[in-house]
Amino acid sequence: MIKPAKPARENISPSDLTFGLSTCKRCLWIKYWFKVTMPGQFPLVGTMAALQEEHFQGADMPTIDPSLRPGKVTKWGEWVKSKPLVVHGAETRWRILGKYDLVATNEDGTIGLIDCKVSDSQRDSGQFYSPQLEAYAYSLENPAAGRAQTVASIGLLVWKPTTAIGTSVDNYGFGVFQKYVPVERDQANFLTVIGEFINVLEGELPDAGPECQTCNYIVARNALD
User: For the chain, which end, N or C, has fewer CB atoms within 10 Å of the first or last residue's CB respectively?
Assistant: First the structure.
């Protein structure tokens, strides 16, 4: 495989910092240099996540969790783009580009960032999602255009479906267990992760991830030819 002179995309998706590096660096490299990805199949999750985000538009932050600063959710579903990322003191070609779920304007002038999840996964921890949330925070604090903002808190708002509710076709639905997972700011870890991420992208084609379902399928499929 011949590496192009320029990557097909130079904007890093925050979610790739969580799932890309931990899944398959080869697929990650191909995604950015050739813009080729395996289509995702999560239609129901997307619908439920959209309902979750809509439900909390305009919500008071302490009603979401008492630990949060006084403020109100004022923005949702907006794209953010960062200045070029700086790694080891050198400016790179890469930027963060992503769409956050919820942002609150706090009474003290800071903002709070919340990422919504509909999941029953045991990995829904602050540590696992920290690089993704820090990427959004970095973009808000180092925007490509506009005024920089101070992100005072980041966290996950998790809905875990638990029960079916309702008594007729007019009001059937799902009950969920809700929890807010605060994520401690860790900019140093973010810079380490983003540095590793960019090193992978700027290098040559990596080996396939041993647990990558996409790569394993391709190898098995090719073996049949």
Answer: C
